[in-house]
Amino acid sequence: MRIFQKKDGGIVQLIGKEKMQDWPVELPLVFIEYIRDKQLGTYGDNKVEKEISAYLDEILKDVAIPRLISVLEGDDQDEIILALKRIEELSKKNIEMARPIKPYLENLLKNKNKNITDIAQSISNNFQKAERRKELAKKRSIMRDKENQFLAGKISGEEYAKARKEYLTLKE
Amino acid sequence: MAKKKTDQKWDFKATKTLLQEYLAKGTEKKDINLPDDTIKIDDLNKKETLNRIYKMVDGVIAKILSSGRPTIELPSRSSSNIIWDEDNDLLLLGRQIMEKQFHSLTSVADITRLMRVLEIVDELLVKDIHATKREIFYTDVKLFTDQKNSDKSIEDVASMLYTTRNSTHIVAAPKGTCVGRLRIRDRNDIIDLEGLGSGGWTISPMLDNIEILESDAEFILVIEKDAAMMRLAEARFWRKYPCILLTAQGVGNVAVRMFLKRLSKELNLPVFSLVDSDPYGHYIHSIYLRGSKRLSYESPFLATPNIKLLGVLTRDLDAYNIPNEVRLPMTKVDIKRTKDILNEDFVKQNKEWRDDLNLALKLKIKAEIQAFSTHGFEFLTEKYLPEKLSTGDWI
Question: Domain B46-171 adopts which CATH fold?
Answer without folding.
Answer: Arc Repressor Mutant, subunit A (1.10.10)
